[in-house]
Amino acid sequence: MKPSRRLNAALATTLLLGRCLAATSGRFSVLSMNVAGLPAILNNNDVPGDKATNAASIGSKFAEYGHDVIHVQEDFNYHAHIYRTDTHSFRTATSGGVPFGSGLNTLSNFDWVDFRRVKWDECSDASGADCLTPKGFTFMRVAIAGPTDNSTAVYVDFYNLHTDAGGEDQDLAARQHNVNQVAGYISEWSKGNAVVVYGDLNSRYSRTADTAIRALLASENAAGPGLTDAWIELRRGGVVPTEENVCGNPASDSICEVVDKVFYRSSPLVTLQAETFRYASNEFLQADGNVLSDHNPVFVEFAWSAGSSLRQSDFSGGTSGTWFSDVPALAGITDPKPVTLTFGGGSRLDRVGLTRADGTRLSHGGAGGTEVSLELGPSEYWVEAELCRGERSGKTRNFYMRAATSLGRTLTAGTPTTDCAVYSAPDGWQIAGFVGQDGDEIDQLALVYAPQ
């Protein structure tokens, strides 16, 4: 098989990373596909053929086209057949068939640092059996680029979702609640991060009573998560449709509308731009020309570029605690230079913090441990950090941090382990903040860089 343009780009990026050079731009592709994996006895999805055979065909086509991050929905009882024929390096473990699993899984060319399944708080059986399975959404922080020395990395938060179906009042109310729930999660867990949200939203803009997805759009809801719909941007000229134009299956064009959507936003750390949108229906057909699913797969290719004012390191630690980010506080700051570093630690790294010249203090973690601090001179910058991690109560956490300045001075807290890594700011940059997960201690940590 001839390598695709996307694969060639990925190989070039890999070569760069192999030389420990930080990739600052690139491309990645996403695919959303409801794979019609309900047991045939419950729903044949009006798709001809044997469901297990069709699932195996879907998996082989995932392998053939090699899209970077594939979200699937209704991946229930035929999941093993998809994974048996797919070759993606990173794949989520199934949560089970009906009625135990959510049907949400991801197949990816990129690794991630966290993965969580969240069940909807509300569901409705008014038009079907939406409450039969624990439908909801998944969250993962995906590394779309990172050098072998860990000093810089590019992460994007990916959400996969399958909202309540149907058009009865109860269905509409449940779906609105579903969308509000994921929007609230994005606001809390994806602060300061680029986001790509896609899946089966069971919604069309042209349904006057189906207002849930409009709440996600930055153009329609200033208080929302600030997302752009790639279909509206690239195929509808930025205009949200009001007249119904429902796609057939396979879709004859990309102007018509399906219920499967791809939303995204950029951040100060990374700029995203959707460049290609299409329904990949003709890529997922049986040998006789019949469809493999009752949903048109949705394909989007993105270009990305690292931030010009803020970037970050890779992560150290585990996935407990609550996500935090100093990126919103640092965005737009003309002088982010720390004047004081303040850490706390004992057996482990309890907290990290810094203070800027304007008195703003950034601090994360708990109150335990012995506090230590270091005052930086006017032309002295924090340029390097060593982080060591270890296991406690079955969970990985950060045990130790050593900060080094441009003048060679150091500050340490916690207890070193044998599992350590050094993170260095790019030339001309400094460490100015943090991203990670915390509770009573620092569970996971990355450094935020800003120009000196």
Mean pLDDT comes to 93
From the N-terminal CA to the C-terminal CA, the straight-line distance is 47 Å
User: Based on helices, strands and strand pairing, what is the structural class?
Assistant: mainly beta
Give the count of structural domains.
Answer: 2
Signal peptide: 1-22
Keywords: Endonuclease, Hydrolase, Nuclease, Signal
Pfam families: Exo_endo_phos2, Jacalin
InterPro entries: Endo/exonu/phosph_ase_sf, IPPc, Jacalin-like_lectin_dom, Jacalin-like_lectin_dom_sf, Sph/SMPD2-like
How does this model look, in words?
This protein is mainly beta and 452 residues long. It has 2 domains: 5-306, Deoxyribonuclease I, Chain A (4-Layer Sandwich); 311-451, Aligned Prism (Vitelline Membrane Outer Layer Protein I, subunit A). The chain has helices spanning 5-18, 51-65, 79-85, 169-189, 230-235, 327-330; strands spanning 25-34, 69-73, 90-91, 105-108, 112-119, 136-145, 154-162, 195-200, 228-229, 260-265, 270-279, 298-306, 311-312, 316-317, 322-325, 338-345, 349-356, 361-365, 370-375, 382-392, 395-405, 410-414, 419-424, 429-438, 442-451. The strands form 5 sheets. A 6-stranded mixed beta sheet has the order 3-4-2-1-12-11. A 6-stranded mixed beta sheet has the order 5-6-7-8-10-9. A hairpin with a 3-residue loop joins strand 16 (338-345) and strand 17 (349-356). Helix 2 runs parallel beside helix 3. The longest helix has 21 residues, at 169-189. The model is unreliable at 1-20 (pLDDT under 50). GO terms for molecular function: endonuclease activity; phosphatase activity; sphingomyelin phosphodiesterase activity.
